[in-house]
Amino acid sequence: MFRPIKNIVWSVLNRLGLGGSVQLYLESALKQYGWYKSFHDKQSVDASGNPLPWYTYSFIFFLEPRIKPHFEVFEYGSGNSTRWYGARVRRITAVEHDAQWIQIIRPQLPANAEVLSRELGESYIQAPKEKGARYQIIVVDGRNRVRCTEFASEYLTNDGVLILDNSERAFYQRAKDLMKERGFKRLDFQGMAPIVGHETCTTVFYREGNCLGI
Questions:
Q1: What are the sequence ranges of the domains in the chain?
Q2: In angstroms, how far is CA 97 from the centroid of its own chain?
Q3: What is the mean pLDDT of the chain?
Q4: Cβ atoms within 10 Å of 6's Cβ, excluding its own
Q5: What pTM, to 2 d.p., does this model score?
Q6: Which SUPFAM superfamilies does the annotation name (predicted)?
Q7: d(CA 59, CA 204)
Q8: Which of 21, 71, 168, 191 is the most buried (most CB within 10 A)?
Q9: CATH architecture, range 57-206
Q10: What is the signed CA dihedral for 187, 189, 190, 194, rounded to 10 degrees?
Q11: Count of Cβ atoms closer than 10 Å to residue 77 Cβ
């Protein structure tokens, strides 16, 4: 009963030149990943509305199975990534300069997540040292990324990795050079990310014996 109706609908759509677009929406990886929902909601989420880091999809898929419950994570910038890490690691600490955004994101965070409110400048850049901890993962995804990369890399554990988002931008080249000078190798994950339609790149810097098993 329903198959003839379905066939008629597809026939009409194809005659209108819309069949390919509808099929792309219904069956594409963009729908599976949740890109359409993220674009509509203007939030970095998966197809079910769960939070995702605003990284390239290729890096999210690479990273997620390598996360361990004992990890301590620090990130410059806060948002759905803070929520995502909070569901997977022992503790996530973020630093944020936007007071209004902090008021929005704090109520959404789990108990093991904390956002430090710091004005842009040295207190923001040096926030990783405040807890007296070392981190398996440090994410540089906020402001002044070159200076933050330079400072934060000293607060990694021996097996720690540093993630630099939007690393394709020319003005972050110095950050990549600094990490190479300090003996880190790198992997670039280029492709689409939630919300936006253009390509971007997420880079992970690592050394031998790192916590992600690279």
A1: 2-33, 57-206
A2: 18
A3: 89
A4: 9
A5: 0.86
A6: S-adenosyl-L-methionine-dependent methyltransferases
A7: 9
A8: 71
A9: 3-Layer(aba) Sandwich (3.40)
A10: -150
A11: 22
